[in-house]
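Anyone else keep sequences and structure tokens together like this?

Example one:
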Amino acid sequence: MLQSKLFYKTSKTKSADTESVSHDLLTRAGFIDQLMAGVYTFLPMGFKVLKNIENIIRQNMESAPANGQEILMPVLQPKENWQKTGRWDSLDILFKLKGSGDKEYAMGPTHEEVVSPLAKKNIFSYKDLPISLFQIQTKFRDELRAKSGIL
């Protein structure tokens, strides 16, 4: 594709909103666009790079010795899972939501609370081990000051 046909054009000027050199370069090169602190849109070239990185990770995780199996766990997680681990009230970065009927949910900053019950349901003996599961997914953290850029 011709550069003149790309959705986003590059910029020579430094943005006032960028705090790190990498953030500034990714923004100026047209890979990402910052919607607000900690929230980004991956533009066409940035999205292509992201997908390529995911594929490299996938290839390495699925090959020996890892022999990983990719799964996709839900972003929305029930309050009960988080209460069992004692992290519903102790994790200060947890996005909490109320659904219909006053049901409470968390948006996953991590997925231990989902994968542990899943493993309990599916691993019956030491003979089922070792098992290697992985996922590639967006995480949600309610940070006071999102300063780490894209991780």
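And example two:
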Amino acid sequence: MKNNWPTESLESLENHSWGEIPKDESYLVTTCHKLRKKQLANFDSEDLRIMIGQNIGLKYLIPMALDTLNKNILAEGDFYEGDLLSSVLTSDSKYWKNEIGKWSQMCELFRNQIDVINIAATKDETGRNILTAFTKFEEINSNH
């Protein structure tokens, strides 16, 4: 991976253009097209949530998300407290099987913040869903 990758876009890093945004596309498709052209250093929690939720650019975006979650495990995009964590935990298991170090890092981060997550789980269903998602996430590489 290039050392200066945060200053580039996914489109540049992956050396692949999706072309022009098709007319009359959904908000999600349009947004993903735009975000592929955005410099990664300018991504916020919502940008990460959207792209990780679509399993786009995980090689670059998961490390960024882990940094964000390390600062605030319940970092929030535009939907709800913990929506970035939820997207990370439910992202493509193939990525996590190939990136066991990142998987271990996510598991450790989650366990270190379990008190914060448990408080969220007492407040609403979203917090409880995050706990359920983590149980499934742990199983991805449970033999490690």
